[in-house]
User: Fold Carboxy-S-adenosyl-L-methionine synthase from Aureliella helgolandensis.
Amino acid sequence: MNRDRIYSLPRQRVGEFTFDDSVADVFPDMIARSVPGYASILSMIEQLAGRFIRPGTNIYDLGCSLGAATWLIRPQASMDCTLHAVDNSPAMIARLQQRLAELSPQEIASGCAVETHQADIRQVSLDRASFVVLNFTLQFIPSVDREPLLQKICESLIPGGALLLSEKISFEDDSQQALLNELHHDFKRAHGYSDLEIAQKRTSIENMLIPEPLDAHLSRLQRVGFEVVAPWFQCFNFASILAIKN
Ligand SMILES: C[S@@+](CC[C@H](N)C(=O)[O-])C[C@H]1O[C@@H](n2cnc3c(N)ncnc32)[C@H](O)[C@@H]1O
Ligand SMILES: O=C(O)C(=O)C[C@]1(C(=O)O)C=C[C@@H](O)C=C1
Assistant:
């Protein structure tokens, strides 16, 4: 795995974070060292896929990056399912397509077909879905577009279908916010990031990763039509929610 050193040297001006080639090259290392609980969430996505996926349905990994969730979900789905891996980053989708093209016939037979889409998740149409994943993607969508997107997802789900939503979250209380920021930065330091790397990354994502409080997520999911909305994981300022449509 390539080590993330993107922000290790001082920059005159820290530009806005983008999911380009340099990020795609180090992404597994970057996200594992930046998001506390990421590995646990992925492993639970695999388990949840086994529970919620139904034969003959579509599954969507929205903002799939290199397909970390896609690779775990695929073996859980029967061959008559289609797993749609969607991301608007050409660098991410190219690497996922490359890996899919290298599958052996035996590996192809070990799970359902994967269709990649280099597209904006606000624009793709969703249909007959049994399981939808938004693993740290909604946070990059402009705030006004979040509710329509979640509404579209809810409408596309079959009865009993589920959305797994993981997000960086914020806190209404200033002292709680300050504490959780510090704990997150301690986590990054413990995983080898310097203070400079932490500060420059923070500047670069400031205006494009917009976290919301957990309650805002829960009430919006209920508003768009999910009957069961269950927060099931939180580690510092990162949380994951399971939302089910009856
Ligand atoms: C933090 S990464 C997601 C990680 C991934 N889901 C995983 O589990 O490893 C966020 C991804 O969302 C993608 N993204 C951001 N906005 C998007 C949009 N409007 N449409 C499609 N993809 C988007 C980015 O390109 C990036 O690959
Ligand atoms: O919040 C941060 O400091 C992060 O680095 C988080 C985060 C994320 O949650 O997606 C931001 C960008 C990268 O994709 C990896 C991790």
